[in-house]
Write a structure and sequence with these properties.
CATH class: Alpha Beta
Largest sheet: 5 strands, parallel
Shape: globular
Number of domains: 1
Number of helices: 8
Distance between the termini: 9 Å
Helix content: 40-55%
Order of helices and strands: EHEHHHHEHEEEHEH
CATH architecture: 3-Layer(aba) Sandwich
Structural class: alpha/beta
Length: 212
């Protein structure tokens, strides 16, 4: 059965476009995959923490040398990476804030780019530990304008960053579903297109299951 990790990072609640899209996708996916294992992470409700000196020191201290406090902290900060490693499909709500990802999502990324779980070093070169595991990411994003075209394409630091950071740990099958626009009519039209695309995405996943 597929294991799905759904992550919301918008600071908005009911008015969030990305939350509406992740909710719609998950409802449609669960309807087609009733036995799927679902984990949902709301980074805002969770109050995800930023990395600290203590957490960084813990990650790079060999397990046999960790103090009891370090061991407890290691278990706490490794939860996010463990969930990602276990997932076949990752559904990510990532609105664009000031041309890039929200701070909560950046904090999450700093937790999942995890030495020994999602990447390692071999002879000084990084190794993507999730490569070859057939994981797929669907990113639902919303922005106040069209960043796929000039003159604002150069301001898009969200999609290139997410593609690069997930490729670093070995996930390259990433699909973006975008709602771009500022005025209400444009947002509504783009949201309807995204909802239609959700139907197609779920149909594709049912035809070609992501679970290995």
């Amino acid at each position: 059965m597929p294991k799905v990790l759904c992550i919301d990072s918008s600071s908005r609640s009911a008015t969030s476009v990305t939350r509406q899209l992740t909710e719609a996708f998950m409802a449609r996916f669960k309807s087609s995959n009733p036995t799927a294992e679902i984990v949902h992470r709301d980074l805002i409700a969770d109050g995800i923490s930023f990395v600290t000196d203590a957490s960084i020191s813990t990650l790079y201290t060999p397990s046999e040398q960790r103090t009891p406090a370090m061991a407890a902290l290691y278990e706490q900060v490794s939860v996010y990476a463990d969930e990602l490693v276990a997932a076949d499909l990752i559904v990510l709500g990532a609105p664009m804030y000031n041309f890039t990802v929200p701070a909560a999502l950046k904090a999450y990324i700093d937790m999942i780019v995890f030495p020994g779980k999602t990447f390692a070093y071999d002879g000084g070169a990084p190794v993507a530990m999730l490569a070859g595991q057939n994981k797929k990411i669907i990113v639902f994003t919303a922005s106040g304008g069209n960043y796929d075209e000039l003159p604002y394409k150069a301001y898009d630091f969200l999609e290139p960053y997410l593609r690069a950071i997930f490729a670093f740990i070995g996930i390259t099958d990433i699909e973006f579903v975008k709602v771009q626009g500022h005025d209400q009519a444009a947002v509504q039209a783009e949201t309807e297109k995204a909802m239609a695309k959700i139907e197609n995405l779920v149909a594709q996943l049912v035809a070609q299951p992501v679970a290995v």
